[in-house]
Amino acid sequence: MDPLLLTAASGMKARMQSLDMLANNVANSGTSGFKADHEFYGIFRGELPVVETRWTDFSQGSVLPTGNPLDLALDGKGFFALNSPGGVVYSRTGNFQVSKANQLATVEGYTLRNTRNNGQPMAVDPKLPVEIDRAGIVRQSGQEIGQIEISGFDDAARKLSKLGTSYFSNAGMTAKPEAETVIRQGAIEQSNVPVTDGAVRLIDVMRQFEMLQRAMSVGAEMNKRAVDEVARTT
After folding, report:
1. Contacts of 95 (CB under 8 A, 6+ apart)
2. For residue 128, how many C-alpha atoms fall within 13 Å in the half-sphere facing its CB?
3. How does strand 143-147 pair with strand 137-140?
4. CB neighbour list of residue 227: distance below 8 Å, 6 or more residues apart
C-alpha cells in the first residue's frame, strides 16, 4: 500500500479508538463513581502509531451531599468490595439500597462485604434507620451489625480492569484493607470526567479524523493521476 495511505489509515484507526473512549467518558460524566479512561499511544519497531492501551484515571471525583443514608462516598483511595455472581468486584459508586433479601446491595444486587463475617453480605432490618460511621461500621438501634469492607491496591491503574462503567476486577491480584479511606454517609462521589475538557478533546480528535480522511482522498487521487499519466505515455 502507498505509504501516505497507510499512514492515514493507521491514524484514522487510532482516532476511532480515541473517539470511542472519549465518547464513553462524556456519556458517563454524570455516572457516580465513574473513572475516566485515557489513551496511551505506542510505536513499535518503526511501525505506525496505534493506541497501545487504555489507562484509567483513579483520581477522586467531587463529593455531592444527597441526604440519603444509603448513599455512601469514599474519601481516599479505597474501593467498596462487593460480592457479585462472578466473584468479588470493586467500585467507587456508592448508590446502595436494601435488597429484597434485606441486605445492603447495589441496584444490580451486588452485596457489600462484611469484614467481620468473612465477606458475607450484611443483613439489616429494612424498618430501622441505618447508621454508618467513617470507619464503615454499620449500626441499627445502637447495635453494631458489621463493618463495610474497603479494599485498596498498591497500583490500581495496573491491577484493576474495568467491568462495565462502575465496577472493577483485580485480575487475581491481592487486595489489601484500606484503613486510611473513610466513608461519608449521605453523599455520593461524582464522576471525575471534566465535562468541558472531554468535549473539547472529543471535537479535536474528530477534526484530526476528518483531516486524515482528506489526506486519504488526496493520496488516492494522486495515485489515480499517476496511473493515468503512465497510461498516456505508453
Report:
1. 32, 70, 71, 106, 107, 188
2. 16
3. antiparallel
4. none
CB atoms within 10 A of CB 195: 12
pTM (predicted TM-score): 0.75
Which tens digit of pLDDT belongs to each residue from 89-143? 999 999 999 999 999 999 999 999 999 999 999 999 999 999 999 999 999 999 9
CB 215 within 8 A of CB 12: no
Q: Is residue 71 within 8 Å of residue 96, measured between CB atoms?
A: yes
pLDDT digits (tens, 9 = 90+) for 172-200: 678 899 989 999 999 999 999 876 666 66
Which residues, at least 6 apart from 10, have a Cβ–Cβ distance to it below 8 Å? 48, 49, 50
Alpha carbon distances (Å) from 172 to 175, 178, 233: 9, 18, 66
